[in-house]
Amino acid sequence: MKRDLSNITRTLDDVKCNDIIYKKSVIKEIFNADPDLKEVLGQLDKIPLNKYADKDNPTEEELKERARIVDYNEKVSHPQILSFLKVNDIQKEVLNFVMFDIEDERQSYTNKLIKHQVLDVMVLVHEDDMDTEYNIDRIDLLSYIIEDLLCWSNVTGLHLEMVENKFGITDTKYYSRTLSFLIKTTNTNNFKHGRMTNSHESI
Questions:
Q1: Rounded Cα gap, residues 147 and 130, in angstroms
Q2: How many whole angstroms separate alpha carbon 123 and alpha carbon 142?
Q3: How high is the mean pLDDT of the chain?
Q4: What is the pLDDT of residue 45?
Q5: Is residue 197 part of a domain?
C-alpha cells in the first residue's frame, strides 16, 4: 500500500488533505448528533425473537419464523443517514433516509484559488410514513431541520448558502426533496505541496 489510508488528515488547515472527506465527516457528525433529526427520521421497532416450544428441538416452522425475524431486524437496523446518494435497492423496511454528498462544481471565474462546491442533501420518505404528529409532512419537516442545521453555517470553513430546494418522486414509492448548498472554498488543487505537480510523478 503506497498511501497511509488509515491516517488521512481531516483538517482544513492542511491543504494536502482531501477537503471533501473532511467536510463530509463533519456533516455526518452534525446529522447524527441532532436528536430532532433522528426522531423525525424514525426507526421501526425490532420484532422480538419467537420462542421455541422445545428449545433443544425447534420445528422447521419455528426455524423459518426465527430466520424471517432475524432478517427483518437486520434490515430495520441499517443506517438512515448516509454520506452518499443512493436510490436503488434501498431497504423498504427502513422507511426514511437522509443522504448527502459534496462535489467540486467549478473554480471561480475571477480567482483560480477559489472553487465552488455543492453539498446536496437528499431526503427520502416512504409514502406510507409521510404523516407526523406535528401535522407537517415528514419530508418537509426533515427538510426544515436540515436547512436549520446548515444554512449560513460555517462548519465547512465558509458559509453554506442554500441555493436550491427541489421536490422529486422515485419509482419505488419514495418521495424525495433535495437541498443544495453552495460552498465557496479554497481551491487546494491549485497549490498542493506549494507547486502544481502530482506527488506520484517525479520532477
A1: 19
A2: 7
A3: 80
A4: 74
A5: no
Q: Within a domain: residue 5?
A: no
| pLDDT given for residue 198 in this prediction | 46
175-184 pLDDT, tens digit each = 999 999 998 7
Query: Contact at 8 Å (CB) between 189 and 181?
Result: no
Rounded-to-integer distance, Cα 145 and Cα 121, Å:
12
Task: Answer with the residue of higher pLDDT: 198 or 65.
Answer: 65
Q: Is residue 33 part of a domain?
A: yes
Burial of 129 (0-12, 13-18, 19+ CB in 10 A): middle
Which candidate, 122, 120, 126, 202, places its Cα nearest to that of 162?
Answer: 120
Three-state DSSP state, 69: helix
CA distance 157 to 108: 17
